[in-house]
Design a protein that fits this description.
The complex is a heterodimer of chains A (296) and B (260). By secondary structure, chain A is of the alpha/beta class. Chain A has ten helices and 13 strands. Chain A is 39% helix and 21% strand. Classes of the chains: A alpha/beta (296), B mainly alpha (260).
């Protein structure tokens, strides 16, 4: 593929996860959506409609490439074939952003199509940093690393998740992708304060925010167990947590993820409208996080 | 920052995690806990469920006609067996299920649906055609300009989206009957199926056995004349105009090679 797209950055505005069924509407009139995110692995075929659509979209919109299959937290080395597929995609598309997850999905050459959890230990930290260094070298740009949704914890963990992510960012110079719904899901499931998590998070390293819908279940004790399903609207407490985050972090690119039971375009655009509202109603003064960094 | 661990804290490696993930009978590893450091229990099932549900959904969208023929419930059950026997070997879910045709044929309880394996092969081929590399078709005039002698000495470069399948079952007719409303009921008999992708949507069409022989010979690098001889050895009345038209209409000829 000879084409390469001009440099762009993600605007501090709403974006949505791109679904092919919305192609015509997006090309016609995407407002208030100003950028799009694709799952890298869906655009690794050799040709055909997916790549043709992506080329059209990239002419009009900043594109964020979100990987779901690299298995950055895997105990095994990164898959060299997958690295070269990512390199190829990033080279021709020249996306505004590339992100992946603090998770693993491949073991012994087999891919499990889910984001599996990691113990937050020094050993994991070293391994994840090695993999991120390697990826950033291959794609020749910094990546953003996303915080997971947690349903359980590892007894062996010695780091808090915000500290763990901040340390990875410090060591590798990668940015962070803060999924506010994931924070809410994990906070409910593991009984911590979502605001406390945001307070502890390295907000100055955040290059993108995710929002999505979750499902509700219960654990063995009948306590709420939220499941990150991306199959419905973002709930009010998550919108409130977005406001809390933006007040501290300042304006950011905010993405709506809706991957299952995908709604019609107008429903998705209405979610993006709500994100636009949150961004537009930020207090005008410098964000709290930045203000706190000024020495007394 | 980092805290110190108690010496008896159980560690969980990824091999242990996967063993428990893929088998509901295996106990949840001891080092996985809830917020009170008690056994994770049902919380671990979220991961078991995510993996099983996402791979089952991938199988339904990859093999919609097989799913329709089996019924959704049977497809769920078979997918559950399949995904444990053959988890994806790559994160490219678009190509998941390569082993499914043989897997279906290895299930004795499906012996009465002998065509299922070939239907799955057709659905796989359609998916590969959908994602195949783009290639521009030649101008048909280029062929028309050739003398008959030159034409017979010409080989064809074919589109990467082109596929040809042969089955003892009427697989294209079964596929059509289950995807297109009002399509004719399938009649028993073998079918050869040519898949082309004129633009973005692959089209499966039935060709005769001799036509399939002609196309197969071209795929293997024969000239049009050599392929014609092979096709005529199976059917003396074989005429290349109809399959050549199919290839041209399908945008499947991307180059001419002089084999003279």
């Amino acid at each position: 593929m000879l084409q390469s797209f001009p440099n762009r950055s993600l605007p501090n505005a709403p974006g949505v996860g791109y679904k092919p069924q919305h192609f015509a509407e997006i090309m016609e009139q995407a407002e208030p959506v100003q950028w799009l995110e694709i799952h890298a692995e869906n655009y690794m075929g050799a040709g055909g409609r997916p790549l043709a659509q992506l080329r059209h979209l990239a002419e009009k919109f900043a594109i964020s490439v979100h990987g779901v299959g690299l298995s950055i937290g895997g105990e095994a080395p990164l898959d060299p074939e997958h690295l070269s597929r990512l390199k190829h995609l990033v080279s021709w598309l020249n996306p505004a952003s590339f992100s992946e997850h603090l998770a693993w999905s491949t073991h012994d050459g087999q891919f499990y199509n889910d984001l599996l959890p990691l113990p937050y230990t020094d050993e994991t930290l070293t391994r994840v940093c090695t993999h991120i260094d390697q990826l950033q070298e291959v794609i020749d740009r910094p990546m953003l690393l996303e915080n997971p949704s947690s349903y359980l914890a590892f007894a062996e963990s010695t780091w808090s998740e915000p500290d763990f992510l901040a340390e990875i960012s410090r060591r590798t110079d990668c940015g962070l992708l803060l999924d506010v719904n994931n924070v809410f899901v994990s906070a409910t499931n593991l009984a911590f304060s979502p605001q406390g998590y945001i307070d502890a998070f390295a907000l100055d390293r955040v290059g993108e925010i995710h929002l999505g819908g979750h499902d509700e279940d219960t654990d063995d004790q009948g306590r709420p167990l939220l499941i990150d399903s991306h199959g419905r609207e973002v709930v009010d407490p998550v919108w409130a947590l977005l406001d809390y985050t933006l007040e501290r972090a300042g304006p950011k690119p905010v993405l709506i993820e809706w991957d299952n039971d995908v709604p019609d375009w107008s429903t998705l655009a209405a979610e993006a409208e709500r994100a636009a509202f949150a961004l537009a109603n930020l207090p005008a003064q410098a964000p709290l996080a930045a203000a706190q960094q000024v020495p007394a | 920052m980092s805290k110190q661990l108690k010496s008896h804290t159980p560690l969980v490696d990824q091999a242990q995690f996967i063993t428990a993930l893929m088998s509901a009978e295996t106990p949840v590893p001891e080092g996985l806990v809830d917020q009170d450091c008690l056994a994770a229990g049902r919380r671990f099932s979220v991961y078991r469920n995510n993996v099983a549900v996402s791979l089952t959904e991938a199988m339904h969208s990859a093999f919609p006609v097989v799913a329709k023929l089996l019924g959704n419930k049977n497809m769920d059950g078979l997918s559950g067996l399949f995904l444990r026997a053959h988890p994806p070997s790559s994160p490219l879910m678009m190509f998941y299920g390569a082993e499914f045709p043989a897997f279906l044929e290895g299930m004795p309880q499906l012996d009465h649906l002998g065509y299922l394996g070939d239907i799955a092969r057709l659905e796989l081929a359609l998916r590969h055609a959908y994602h195949a590399a783009d290639a521009s078709a030649i101008d048909p005039l280029k062929l028309a300009e050739l003398s008959e002698e030159a034409l017979l000495q010409t080989g064809l470069t074919l589109s990467p989206a082109l596929h040809l399948l042969r089955s003892p079952w009427p697989i294209q007719s079964i596929w059509r009957f289950n995807t297109i409303e009002g399509a004719d009921k399938p009649q028993a008999g073998a079918e050869a199926v040519l898949i082309t992708r004129p633009e973005f949507d692959p089209i499966p069409q039935v060709v005769s056995s001799a036509e399939a022989t002609w196309i197969e010979a071209l795929m293997q690098g024969a000239s049009i004349g050599q392929a014609l001889d092979q096709a005529r050895s199976t059917d003396t009345k074989f005429d290349l105009s109809s399959p050549l038209t199919l290839l041209l209409q399908g945008g499947a000829i991307t180059g001419l090679v002089n084999k003279g």
